[in-house]
Here is the input.
Amino acid sequence: MIQIDYANSESIYIQIKENIKKLILSGGLKPDEMIPSVRSLASTLAINVNTVLRAYKELELEGYIYSVQGKGNFVSGNNNSLKEKSVEDFKEKLGKLVKEADYINITLEEFINMAKELYSDKEER
Amino acid sequence: MIQIDYANSESIYIQIKENIKKLILSGGLKPDEMIPSVRSLASTLAINVNTVLRAYKELELEGYIYSVQGKGNFVSGNNNSLKEKSVEDFKEKLGKLVKEADYINITLEEFINMAKELYSDKEER
DNA sequence: CAAGTGTTATAGTACAGATATAACACTAAT
DNA sequence: ATTAGTGTTATATCTGTACTATAACACTTG
Here is the structure.
């Protein structure tokens, strides 16, 4: 369900966060569905409880999950605002990339062609 | 010429690298043009010489600049391979973004529309 | 009550980034 | 030759972040 890549330079708790965010946004995790307990995930991934806790706490702050004492952590109900926020985040990243394209003189047409290509690559999986 | 943003989470030496890369790729710095000496840049930015040195050393390794003992650091002559490489890097980033778009169910059409919008925003500057 | 859950707190380790300082080597101008 | 400006190398230190280790406390469910 959740995987850590030690070759990845991102820190463990960030990887856990991203992993769960993606699962929630893609629909792999449904609202009010329980996610692994801090202890079980820590044990599965062979990491410390506090590392998982940190990821979960930030996910809670960002509205992706909610935690209930003695019961566990659950996916938030309101996906809509989350989706909106993630689209905004996405747009910001795209904006940066467009700016970068500018530096190396990539035109809009070239940009779109690359995107089309990458999209179709994706579907060939 | 070069600016450090302490609010940016990127480390100082990375910011220096990116700054200079952009200047070179955009043509703001011409081949064989001298860039600020390690000492002067360190003094201007109120940072340590070693931090600048680290950025310059990596830029040299990546082929963007070359250094001459006693004279200074200069922009590399061969921009072509650099441009190619930067386009490749760019494509990789775009690929990641496309993957991310997938998670939040952004279609190719939506993606292209956003890109068009951001490109035109850019021109309105 | 016991087992499983989240929570809080503290201390310790490891590493990366940045600093401080110094010494050495080369180049160009005087 | 001297001086000022350049890059280079080396070492030690400080700081913050990530992660670990451990423990204790609080809540929920069977």
